[in-house]
Amino acid sequence: MGLYTHLSNPNILRITWLLFGLALALSAALTIPLFPTNYSHEVGSVAPYTVKSRVAVPPFVSMYLTGESERQASNSVSDVLVYDPSAVQKQKSAATDLLQRIQAVKDDPSLSPEQKLESLKHLKDHTLSVQVLIYIVEMEDDQWTRVTNEAVRLIGNAMSDKVRPQDLAQVRQSVLSQVSSDFNARQVLVSTEIARSFILPNLSIDLDETEKGRKQAKAQIEPVRLSIAPGETILRDGSIITPVDIEKLEASKLIDPKIQWAQIIGNIGLSVAFCVGLGIYLIKGQLNTPVTPKRVLLLALIIGGIVFAAKLLLPGRELLSYLFPFATGPMLIATLLNPFLAVVVALLLSILVTYSAMLSPELLTFLSPSPLEPLEKITLYFSSSLIGVLMVWQAKRMYQYLAAGIGVGIAGAAIVLVFWLLAPDREVAKLGWAVLGVMSSGFLSAALTVGAFVLLGHIFGITTSFHLMELAHPDHPLLRKLVLEAPGTYYHSLIVSNLAEQAADIIGADSLMARVGAYYHDAGKLINPGFFIENQRAGENIHDKLDPTISASIVISHVKDGVQLANQYHLPHRIKDFMQEHHGTRLASFFYQKALQEKEGVQRTDFEYPGPAPRSKETAIVMLADSIEAMARARGSSDPEDLYALVEEVVAERIAEGQLDNSDLTLQDLAKIKEAFKIALRGVFHPRIQYPQPPPLIESEKAHEEAEAAERINLT
Questions:
Q1: In angstroms, what CA-CA distances link 84 with 144, 162, 164, 208?
Q2: How many CA atoms within 13 Å lie on the side-chain side of 58?
Q3: 3-state SS of 117-178?
Q4: 53, 222, 273, 333: which sits with the fewest CB atoms below 10 Å from its CB?
């Protein structure tokens, strides 16, 4: 029996739209560049990610490296110098002109020494220091004449040889050693400073010839060509970007990449195929719970959240790909929805996450994993998730989630070790970090699953195992009320829960759900507890005095009354299912037959339970357990053969009535359920030992006991 029985047409339409929305979201995640891929960085900036080329780039001319080679060749060509023989005479003439103007100031009788100094300071075309000018003003004429002649001589001597621009400082310094030996310190200082200010290079650069030589040197340089191999690293995370890096990015078409429409259409097709496959499984699959739009929305949020998180966090971060808590998604689906659905989603999602994190179009030239890497990630994510799903399925205690986290980590470590052995470049350090990452991922997945499923279960109205454990506690207000006001119903519910739990466990159904559902299935009897046989005193049956139609109405109403109490005590929807479905659409046959005997015009519909018939394995098991326990108690037989026959009778009757048609129970399940019921009933209705009556007291003993009793009464 497929899910068509659980879905009305409006539901199918809403679920289709939800899956369509999921397909759009996944297409956007795979196509929109959530991760930066435009590498038009400035030279000198720090590379934020490691970038590899996926494609081979044929040899191309590196303008930067070629330019550097040409600059080196050009710089190796020396300047072409031309000798100017007239330069020495020009400088001697310029020096003589300055000295004559200085002489004119010195010879002016109208000027005081201070005025002469000020006049010399304002003379043009000299760089003489103030100290030298002071010495000149104070110097006697004969000394001044000797100094001027010496300065002109030093200029001529220094520039008689070829003086290159780069040698000028050395030549000027050398004049100090050529000064006349009979000069005093002042004369040496004045003559050398005058001479140095006029010594200039007599070799000048021939710009035309120099440029011609450099062009010839550049012309001899061959263009520098670069090529890029597939998988070659272009940028390393944290490295300084060079001009060559920019050229490689441009050659690899990583700067301002063009929109690849074919790849975008492929992404959309992949997303649609994912959602179509998921939708077919949801509609055709044999799930234990109805598929509703709210549950599909939850499924879409989990899948979309995992894909978007992977797209944002994983590209280019190898260690994080091991630490990524992928198993959280499948474990949540197993806990909140269905374990078989979780396995299917884990397989599809491991492919989709690996694709979005390593192989999507925007990353085709960003990352270049080895062929083993995508296979490793798919295997790692699916295998570890499978272990997690199997270990959290029907988990009822917190330690089971911790154990699931350990299992996920161990499975991941085993997969990592296998692929490390297959890899051509086995690095021990890399293995250590990867194992540490997957072990941490297991614990992180378990922690996120526990935190998320409690929150999501509350938001989406899904009953979790933790919630069921709370409902199973005897301190729950509704259970306490049942104990106090309808103890017979409470005891009956305990026995039914024991039968249902064992039967559910043996066929792999949710035994905790079956047990808790059985606790509350008859809670509606609290409204009129005295109208139900288990709460009546022996020999007193109020229905003997009532019209059978009224009796049936009161008994049948405990289903509706139970739902009202469930709403009042905020019980989850799944517990309400047990209240509504434990009688299905069966007939209150005792009262119906009594009515037929007492009057005419009896309407069968007045004696039918409102239903619906059980829609899950757990509610069907409780229906069977409820009927078997009630009939076994009514017959009062403890003979195993009678109990076995009763089990067979009840199960066959419910099958014949069609009450189990929508429960997904198979014939094999029913065979196991019957065996579980038979074993449990032997323990509940075993024969009691008949203790012998005490022997009659002899008259003397009887009299003695009566005397002691009278004495005790008098003492009190």
A1: 31, 9, 11, 17
A2: 0
A3: HHHHHCCCCCCCCHHHHHHHHHCCHHHHHHHHHHHHHHHHHHCCCCCCHHHHHHHHHHHHHH
A4: 222
How many angstroms separate the CA atoms of 546 and 178, rounded? 148
SS3 assignment, position 366: coil
Structure tokens at 461: 């109205």
**Dihedral sign (CA 511, 514, 518, 524):** positive
The kind and range of the H/E element at 480 are helix 477-485
- What is this structure's pTM? 0.59
Higher pLDDT, 536 or 665: 665
As given in the structure block, the two tokens for residue 692 are: 């012998």
Question: Rounded to whole angstroms, how far apart are CA atoms 248 and 58?
Answer: 11
Q: Are 621 and 497 in contact (CB under 8 A)?
A: no
Residue holding tokens 């397989």? Answer: 347
Distance CA(388)–CA(394), nearest Å, equals 12
Q: What is the dihedral of CA 283, 285, 288, 290, to 10 degrees?
A: 0
Cβ neighbourhood burial of 404 (10 Å; 0-12, 13-18, 19+): buried
303-352 confidence digits (pLDDT tens): 888 888 888 887 767 788 888 998 898 998 888 888 888 888 898 888 88
| φ, ψ of residue 225 in degrees (nearest 5) | -110, 140
**Which candidate, 357, 352, 360, 353, places its Cα nearest to that of 257?**
360
Element (H, E) at 81: strand 81-83
Q: What angle do CA 165, 168, 169 make, to 5 degrees?
A: 135
Tokens of 336: 């909140």
Where do we find the tokens 């499975």? 411
DSSP labels, 30-71:
HHS--S-----PPTTSBPSS-EE-SS-EEEEE-HHHHHHHHH
pLDDT at 41: 63
Tokens (6 digits) for 125: 């075309």
Tens digits of per-residue pLDDT, 367-392?
A: 545 667 778 888 888 989 999 998 88
Mean pLDDT of 698-706: 52
